[in-house]
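Colleagues,

For the teaching module next term, I've prepared a clean inverse folding example: a structure given as tokens, and then the sequence designed for it. I'd like students to try predicting residues themselves before seeing the answer, so please don't circulate the second half yet.
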């Protein structure tokens, strides 16, 4: 969001900031009852003066209720959201970011005549800490809300009576305890092209101030009426909105006339949320257009005045607050010009662009206000969590990652406690990562060619058995250092086999527009686990013992197994049989050898993770040895790394907007070096947490940048294998680094090992600086599907081969150099997609005739080439077609070898191959 300035310039200036909201829900239902738990986390980044009450909140309970329904009745108890009518008085949005919740009970009835709700609620007060939200002190909302069934002609009525009490209410007439009764009626509906929504509300009660009680006598009238011409282009809708909300005519007459909308939606008039519906008269003509089936826009003008001259201008978001210096004087507030465009990408993904300009009137200027610009872009960055299966698997992986961190803390601590050897502690880490180096590519190949659901069930079941065995052996005091290394190795084998499949299923669980957000959410989940997992592990080991930590890990694998079991996967349809393991492995390596962007990712990975491993290898040795610390301190420092990573994730969007991705990776590498040197040179309990924060920032920056580059550098058919190569290089660097730095520390000291690793990180970062990964997100690697099937005069079996394909071009002499340049690029594509031989020859007898040829190992392998061609590859072929000067398209011929009884035939047709 961007304001220039905030609050019309009265106590605020230019401000631009970002808001993030994450909600995760779990619902259990049986017969006529339901239980729901929803956790929410809200973040703000960059707001001048820090976040407001409705901007930011740590992880907390958003909703937690039990609902019983039957025979047209329902009862709902607990923390819940409560939105009614057109959200003018009761809404689920407390502000631009945080949703409004209530603690209490609702009883409802629904029948032929309509619906009736009784409520006794207390608004939840948002607080900045984790799990510290609670009901607002001294506040309550008691009421009844009724809605009639739809009548003939399309109209309905809402009737309601609400009693609201709060402390600390602030009006121009005074501040104190507010007790307000609200009686309202709403008439709304649609009939043909006409729609309407009209509401009348009156309020009574009292405001207790120091000088005495003020009687509340307030009211509002609001209407929104429009007519749509559905048969015309763009389906225009002309609308007219009008609002009158009472103000206080005389602050000294013992009465309060200012209307209070209680809990209105934050975007009452527009997303700018500048004016509140109190002491206000406004008129808003609007024009809505449907630019596309999924794109709508609305343009509007709001003319605004104070309803009472003596009262103030009131602003949002809640709670209602008077703008200082705006009481008395002029009545005209100003004119707001606004537009809002929405693109509904699909049923779970929406983009919004809001623009508003306020031409400040005399009532604002007398308070020091000025013209205001507002701009906001909202997208569904968290929308993948709305997809039930993605959300379930994401939460299960999050729990499993937390369990893995708990297990790692316990294993490292047990080894350090029983041996005191830096080399043995490093060996535990390497036992986790070495299997990834050995098995990742095979795992990626399997993930691309077998049913991923069954494959994940096997891997999760394996890790559940290993985790359970570790816990049992620890409980029986049979876990020797050698056995711990062996079990850690077995756990690493399961993780190595599961990693590529877990990364690859993201594209199956979410639609293509959500893929980038889903990948980012996976990174956030990893770092949430990194933030709290080590701390949880340290607490469990310190308070309960290692056996409980290993048992906790086993339970998380059981949860993952349960979720994957419930996944109803739709296998990818293909007319071709699945690749064999050997052929798939060879295809993955062949693709990687020809994919420059992927190679850049792998080179940068090797240049970072080898040196980054020094932190993981040396931290437990430094804490237990040099610092004489305990498991709790070790867990806290690891938790600081995770916190730094989460903080870095919040900063990354701004950093990526300002910095080249390769420069960002270099800066993060230098930050890593600084953190390694910091661990070597200081033992201060105040400085080390800051060092760990820097390390976490470096980790998330590099990890996220490289992972996104790896995801976007390859097409879907080889993605799991490409990710496996990335994971393999990542883990090889960690394993080799862990052993190297552990061995160096054993021979010299941990401090010297850390300083050497820091120097190596600086040198390595500078050496790979020119290896570019930026730009991979701009590639279009979706299947082009433009190659027609070959026209066969004889049947050809899939295993028959080799297959020789020739393409004949006619090229002018002036275009020869451009043709050869495009051909070199096409040759890389041919070899990458399966050609074992490729070349171009020129007819020396007939100038201008060029013949491209390539060989595939079998007919089936050539058919796979048809499926592998991408949209970017198609552009290269179209450029070659544009250079072709023949009367017809380039002639393509297929020659098939083998030992079939049928004669080998030359099959030819005109194609874009």
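(Answer key — instructors only)
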């Amino acid at each position: 969001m961007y304001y220039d300035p905030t609050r019309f310039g009265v106590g605020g200036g230019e401000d631009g900031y970002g808001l993030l909201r994450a909600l995760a829900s779990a619902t259990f239902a049986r017969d006529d009852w339901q239980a729901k738990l929803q956790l929410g986390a809200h973040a703000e980044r960059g707001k001048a003066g820090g976040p407001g009450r409705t901007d930011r909140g740590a992880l907390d309970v958003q909703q937690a209720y039990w609902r019983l329904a039957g025979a047209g009745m329902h009862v709902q108890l607990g923390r819940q959201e409560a939105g009614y009518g057109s959200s003018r008085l009761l809404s689920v949005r407390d502000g631009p970011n945080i949703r409004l919740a209530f603690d209490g009970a609702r009883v409802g009835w629904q029948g032929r005549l309509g619906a009736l709700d009784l409520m006794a609620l207390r608004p939840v007060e948002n607080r900045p800490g984790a799990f510290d939200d609670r009901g607002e002190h001294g506040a309550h909302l008691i009421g009844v809300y009724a809605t009639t069934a739809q009548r003939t002609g399309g109209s309905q009525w809402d009737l309601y009576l609400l009693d609201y009490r709060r402390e600390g209410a602030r009006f121009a007439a005074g501040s104190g305890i507010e007790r307000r009764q609200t009686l309202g009626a709403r008439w709304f509906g649609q009939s043909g092209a006409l729609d309407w929504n009209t509401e009348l509300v009156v309020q009574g009660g009292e405001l207790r101030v120091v000088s005495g009680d003020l009687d509340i006598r307030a009211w509002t009238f609001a209407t929104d009426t429009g007519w749509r011409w559905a048969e015309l282009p763009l389906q225009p809708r002309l609308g007219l909105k009008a609002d009158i909300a009472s103000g206080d005519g005389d602050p000294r007459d013992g009465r309060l006339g200012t209307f209070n909308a209680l809990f209105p939606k934050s975007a009452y008039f527009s997303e700018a949320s500048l004016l509140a519906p109190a002491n206000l008269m406004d008129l808003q003509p609007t024009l809505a257009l449907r630019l596309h089936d999924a794109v709508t826009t609305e343009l509007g003008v709001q003319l605004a005045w104070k309803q009472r001259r003596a009262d103030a201008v009131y602003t949002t978001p809640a709670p209602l607050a008077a703008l200082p210096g705006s009481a008395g004087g002029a009545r005209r507030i100003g004119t707001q010009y606004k537009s809002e465009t929405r693109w509904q990408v699909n049923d779970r993904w929406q983009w919004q662009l809001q623009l508003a300009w306020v031409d400040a009137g005399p009532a604002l200027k007398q308070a020091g206000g000025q013209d205001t610009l507002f701009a906001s872009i909202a997208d569904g960055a968290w929308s993948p969590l709305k997809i039930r299966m993605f959300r379930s698997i994401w939460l299960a992986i999050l729990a499993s990652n937390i369990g893995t961190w708990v297990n790692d803390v316990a294993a490292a601590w047990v080894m350090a406690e029983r041996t005191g050897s830096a080399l043995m502690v490093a060996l535990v880490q390497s036992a986790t990562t070495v299997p990834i180096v050995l098995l990742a590519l095979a795992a990626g190949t399997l993930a691309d060619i077998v049913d991923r659901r069954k494959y994940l069930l096997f891997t999760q079941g394996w890790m559940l058995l290993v985790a359970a065995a570790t816990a049992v052996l620890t409980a029986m005091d049979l876990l020797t250092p050698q056995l711990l290394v062996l079990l850690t190795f077995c756990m690493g084998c399961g993780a190595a086999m599961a990693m590529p499949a877990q990364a690859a299923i993201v594209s199956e669980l979410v639609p293509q527009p959500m893929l980038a957000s889903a990948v980012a959410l996976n990174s956030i989940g990893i770092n949430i686990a990194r933030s709290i997992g080590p701390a949880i592990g340290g607490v469990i080991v310190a308070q309960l013992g290692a056996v409980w930590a290993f048992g906790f890990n086993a339970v998380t694998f059981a949860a993952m197994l349960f979720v994957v079991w419930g996944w109803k996967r739709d296998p990818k349809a293909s007319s071709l049989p699945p690749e064999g393991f050997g052929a798939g492995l060879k295809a993955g390596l062949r693709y990687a050898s020809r994919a420059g962007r992927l190679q850049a990712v792998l080179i940068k990975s090797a240049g970072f993770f080898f040196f980054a491993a020094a932190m993981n290898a040396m931290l437990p040795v430094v804490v237990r040895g040099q610092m004489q610390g305990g498991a709790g301190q070790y867990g806290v420092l690891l938790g600081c790394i995770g916190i730094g990573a989460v903080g870095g994730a919040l900063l990354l969007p701004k950093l990526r907007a300002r910095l080249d991705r390769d420069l960002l990776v270099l800066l993060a590498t230098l930050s890593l070096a600084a953190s390694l040197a910091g661990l070597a040179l200081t033992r201060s309990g105040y400085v080390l947490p800051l060092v760990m924060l820097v390390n976490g920032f470096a980790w998330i920056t590099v990890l996220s940048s490289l992972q996104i580059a790896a995801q976007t550098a390859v097409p879907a058919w080889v993605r799991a294998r490409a990710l496996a190569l990335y994971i393999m290089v990542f883990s090889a660097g960690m394993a080799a680094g862990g052993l190297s730095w552990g061995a160096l520390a054993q021979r010299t000291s941990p401090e010297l090992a850390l300083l050497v690793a820091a120097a190596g990180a600086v040198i390595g970062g500078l050496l790979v600086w020119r290896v570019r990964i930026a730009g991979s997100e701009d590639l279009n690697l979706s299947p082009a599907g433009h190659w027609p099937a070959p026209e066969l005069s004889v049947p050809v079996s899939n295993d028959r081969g080799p297959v020789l394909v020739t393409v004949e071009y006619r090229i002018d002499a002036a275009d020869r150099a451009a043709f050869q340049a495009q051909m070199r690029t096409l040759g890389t594509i041919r070899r990458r997609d399966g050609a074992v031989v490729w070349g171009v020859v020129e007819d020396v007898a007939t100038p201008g005739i060029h013949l491209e040829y390539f060989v595939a190992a079998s007919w089936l392998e050539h058919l796979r080439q048809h499926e592998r061609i991408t949209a970017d590859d198609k552009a290269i072929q179209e450029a070659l077609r544009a250079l072709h000067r023949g009367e017809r398209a380039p002639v393509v011929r297929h020659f098939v070898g083998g030992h079939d009884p049928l004669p080998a035939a030359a099959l030819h047709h005109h194609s874009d191959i």
